[in-house]
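subagent[fold] <- orchestrator: predict structure for attached chain, return tokens only, no commentary.
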Amino acid sequence: ETALWLLEELGINYEIKHYKRTKAGLAPAELKAVHPLGKSPVITDGDLTIAESGLITEYLIDNYGKGLFKPIPGSPEAMRNSYWMHYAEGSLMPFMLLTIIFNRVEQAPWLVRPITKGISGQVKKAFINPNVKTHLGFVESELADREWFCGDTLTGADFQMVIPLNAAKTNGFTTELPNIEAYLKRAQSRPAYKQALERGEA
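subagent[fold] -> orchestrator:
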């Protein structure tokens, strides 16, 4: 989603290759042939193969952005951009992944489901949900007086932050966080975002 949205914003011609993961979510051999870890997203540009969405975002902006989506080096906005670029996957996304994992744990075979749901519920209550609340409260406050994460201009940070925030919304964490909800609506209303979703689904 991040890479496609950015590619559309930059107007770059690209080709999408789909790889079907196993039921357990593991990478097929074809994807591991592209990158040994079976990472997704992953892009190839000439002889380069690039994984990790943060690096993909930086690479595309640096090499194809022509000044777009990148604050002036040394500016406060540049520092904010770097912070949110790292924060997205380093701090917020891990709790979204834990939520997804424990939701799957709750879907265990019916015979053991009461046990797995009980364990999952306790982990969520004691650890995951309090941390999610803290992080999303922080993000909500940071968006109180900003259209985008670095001000009134879209930057690399926004391409990174949309993924964990979409995950938070999908899991019902943002219903009482109007700034985050409005932020996601702004992102999703952009023509390039809509085009990326259409091409990804196609």
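orchestrator: received. Logging for downstream: The beta strands are 42-45, 48-51. The chain is about 60% helix and 5% strand.
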